[in-house]
Specification:
Layout: H1 7-27, E1 37-38, E2 50-54, E3 60-62, E4 65-67, H2 69-79, E5 88-92, H3 98-110, E6 117-118, E7 121-122
Parallel strand pairs: 1-7, 2-5, 5-6
Antiparallel strand pairs: 2-3, 3-4
Helix pairs in contact: 2-3
Length: about 120
C-alpha cells in the first residue's frame, strides 16, 4: 500500500476549525458601552486600532484594561513608540459626560497624539 492515510489529518483540522469558530467571537468583545447613534460613514482600517473606552460612570479602559487618567498619556506613548501611526479610537458611552471625553482627549494631546477617531453606531 503506497498511499498516505489523510483521514486523521482531516479529523484534526476539523476539530481546530470548530475551536477557532467558537473562540473567535470571544476575542472581539471589549468593554460594554452604549455608543451614540450618528449618520457618519464607516472607516476602512487595515491596522488594528488602539481603543479607549469610556463608560457612563467615567471609568476609562485601554483596550480591555481599566486605566487611570494620569496613566493614560505615558502608557500610550510607550505603546506608540514602536508603532508611530497606530490609530486611536475613543468609544464613549452615550451617557458619558462630555467633560470626561474632553479630559481623555487632553491627555492624548499631552502624549502628542493629534489624530483621534470617535466611534459611534449607525442610526437604526
Amino acid at each position: 500500500m503506497g498511499e498516505i492515510n489523510v483521514t486523521p489529518l482531516v479529523d484534526v483540522m476539523l476539530v481546530l476549525l470548530i475551536i477557532f469558530m467558537v473562540t473567535a467571537p470571544l476575542l472581539t468583545q471589549g468593554v460594554n458601552v452604549d455608543l451614540p447613534d450618528t449618520e457618519a460613514p464607516s472607516m476602512q482600517q487595515n491596522v488594528e486600532p488602539l481603543v479607549l473606552s469610556i463608560r457612563a460612570n467615567g471609568q476609562i479602559y485601554l483596550q480591555n484594561h481599566a486605566i487611570k487618567l494620569k496613566q493614560l498619556a505615558p502608557r500610550i506613548q510607550a505603546i506608540r513608540k514602536n508603532k508611530k501611526d497606530l490609530p486611536i479610537f475613543i468609544r464613549g458611552d452615550a451617557k458619558t459626560p462630555y467633560e470626561r471625553i474632553a479630559q481623555v482627549m487632553s491627555a492624548l494631546a499631552q502624549a502628542k497624539i493629534e489624530k483621534v477617531g470617535l466611534v459611534t453606531e449607525p442610526r437604526r
